[in-house]
Protein 1
Amino acid sequence: MSKKTARRSSFRREKMTALDYILFVILLGIALLILIPFWNVIMISFSTPKEYADNPFMLFPKNPTLASYKALFMDGSILMGYWNTFKLLIVGLPLSLFLTSSMAYGLSRSKFPGKRTIFFLVLFTMIFNGGIVPLYLIMKSLHLTGTLWSVIFAGSFSAFNMILMMNYFYSLPESLMESARLDGAGEWRIMFSVVLPLAAPIMATITLFYGVAYWNSWYDAMIFLRKAEQLPLQNVLRTIIVESTTNASNASSVNAVGKQAFSTGMKMAAVFVTMVPIMCFFPLLQKHFAKGVLTGAIKT
């Protein structure tokens, strides 16, 4: 009997127990609780003002329209927000990966001088934080306020991500690094040519963490940036939501119902267009994500 046939026969012998069915129903219910509101957001963005006023909770609009998306993109601010967020990713993501991987590699080596002290200082920042005022004063003294560099540097390093990557580097055999040293390779060459090619799972995981953090970043931009044309996507989305909520609260006549519904449609359209890119980005790294987190979270 071949291995494939044996695997099939063993799969047939496994039967679903009552507990398996209960768990399946519970997980299905949780999945629906997550998916139905998300689907409702998408459908509202395609609905007309009258249809939304008649039925706020809808699974399929009877008369779908792209009016909310046209109004959203005609404004121009959402496209500017996309461009600013892409600039954050293009510059900030490689910088964050370089800073995190280089420090993680150094602290994962047993002969690194001052290793314990540096690791304690990094760990200390996870427990105690200086706050936004010292950070703002530092950015101001460096003349970075009002520029995207302040947002990039404020989120360029995460102690948690560094510890995950450091623990993953611990799991790599020391003999590989020793062999490279015997061949005359320096530490930078070892890190880029030996360690990082073997660390694809944790690199994919940390890339996803930093990518989501930059994509969802809004607080630092709210503190450091002043010009509307510099705001990243999430700040633009926040502005749209605040304006829509203000319009809805000021609606006091029957004619304002259509305006309120249209504002809600624009708000839902803005939520959808800001979610799509990061949702497309996640499946590309998903196969490495679980392995990277599991290995990086356990010190071997």
Protein 2
Amino acid sequence: MRLLTLAQLNFRNLRDSRLEFPAGVVAVVGRNATGKSNLLAAAYLGCTGEVVGGKLVRQVRLGEEEAYVAAEVEHDEGVSRIEVGLAPGRKLLKVDGQQARTMDVARVVSAVLLTPEDADLIHGPPSGRRGYLDGLLSKLSARYSSLHREYLRVLEQRNALLRAGDLGPTFGVWSERFALLGSEIDALRDRAITRLAPLAAAVYREVAGDAGSDLRVSLRRSYAEAGLAEALSASARTELARAQTVVGPHRDDLYLELGGVSLHEYGSRGEARTAALALRVAEYRILGEKHAEPPVLLIDDFTAELDSARREYLLTLAGATPQAFVSGTEPPPRFDYRLDMVAGRATAPGVGRA
């Protein structure tokens, strides 16, 4: 896949109305706070329909009410145009002029974004790791995306009844639907972990350069019972006390171990950064298999918290990808095209260097 053009209006601090990009490694160079990360976030939004970095209102330039991003992405079946309109609390997506959802974008194009903040996946709360897994699965399966959206709606209704103390027949109906949806989500997550875990483990060994580095990825459930329906029954008293649903996929965790020890609790910053990198590269490879071509690769601040061996791994991956964007305060050793960012505006000083 290749991002051909990117157009924007009022997206964060970006000033260029339209940019064109070649194949190969595109170096995005500039001092801190000049818009490098914002350009990659806009590219990711245009390729996936997904917002990076918080609330929608934070994507709109200060003082403006709306923002717009449009991308033309080349893939094996042709060229698709993805348009995204943003306003506080509202996002409008179109694919080739037709109103769409994020899952519709995922059917035709994809991108993977690596950032220094990915290390927070490991040391941060379980919600971040669940978000990673849910995001990957939603790109792989339209069914999962629909299931997850309905599951969250049913969860909200069930919690509202618990807060109100209304445990009548309606509560039973919502509970039955909750258990059905949650069980199917569990099954799809299990299938994804079966594919993700060995890929992430292999990448960790490649990046760390240590054949003995044993990264294990598993799904840690919020209940020990045989099924979700049984877990709901067993947790009934706790639910009443807390006035919320305490078991289900919304409480599970993507659990990572290194050498049999929890990375969340005991992993160093370097180990966490490498494990997060392994998850992202595994995502990149899985999406490449789904589309039968590599997704657009976006690497933000390639030098951050990585030693020379890990940087070299990333840059080798970028060089083997049809198109990769690599940002930094200095250019990578090898690139095909360079963009210099100054105050939200990109200039192209020339071609790259081998």
Protein 3
Amino acid sequence: MKRNCLEYIFFITVILLITWIFSCSGRPGKDKVNTPVTSVNNSPETEEPAVNLIRLIAPSENASVTLNEKIKVIMEPEGRFSPDSVKIWFDGKMAGIVKSNPWEYEIPPELNNRTGKKAIKIIAFRQRHKPQTITCFVTVYSDSEPRRNSYRVVNVYPHDREAFTQGLVYYDGFLYEGTGQETRSNLRKVELKTGEVINQHNLDSKLFGEGIAILNGKIYQLTWQTKVGFIYDLESFRLINKFYYQTEGWGLTVMNEKLVMSDGSNVLYIMDPEMFLPVSQLEVYDNKTAVRELNELEFIRGEIWANIWQTDLIARIDPESGKVLSYIDLKGIMNDPSFDTSVNVLNGIAYDRKNDRIFVTGKNWPELFEIKVIE
């Protein structure tokens, strides 16, 4: 009997010992779940709550800067923490990094190479803290005042007064013209010397035709607000395809096997001709302002020329930077007192590359002019 009692006590002791071991081993248990643990904030891999590490002193929001100049970024630590490092981006490109006082950096001129509204982004880092991001915008203006060019008329040719000119191209001895206005929009091939229409395709009456361009045996034509364009066979004017875009359609030209499109703003879109998707864009500025209402376009001797709607001016634009190189003032070229050029405005530029000839006309103008620009 005594032996049985001893065996019973031994058995109970073993059971209690096993229970105690499991309880201390960290396996699930009611008491263990409620036991406090060391604060996670003391772990070296754990982030502290977000704090402000840096403050941007300069440049100020919407500051004006000049093309090709250094842009000085000035910062200072904020609060009780200083950052370990600050990275600076300009216009989407990594510019540099600062790791100690003075918290300053000069964005190099080679990054400040395009006019327009550009973002400066700084990201401050500190170990165990969430990065802090600050973004501001600056406006980059041209580094030179545009020249002012006059002109000389070389030849005058007849032009259809019913042609509300929206696009104009000279190609292989003929003019190609896109015209606008609902119920009257069309695409036409025109004999230069006589103004005779050789071929014509009329758009749907609901469409307002806009700029045209010729590339690889195809004619591209925009429409104004319907966000659809058309591709035609150059010889037959047979419709080949349609394309779509997100802005209004105004002017169109060809530059280095790409299409350049305007939408009435100061932005030019460089478009892939196969998918008609933008691959890049230019914001056009002179030394004082954004140059808006860019209309009909032509690529001439490495420059983009653009009619500025409701003016007598053509802007000559640097395709690398977006700055205006010069303005051609064509005031008085339509020298007919009975003709109202405030309504039927200058619009239409065509370039004969083979013979280095420049042609201009306007909406419903009775004449088309070959001009020489006086530099």
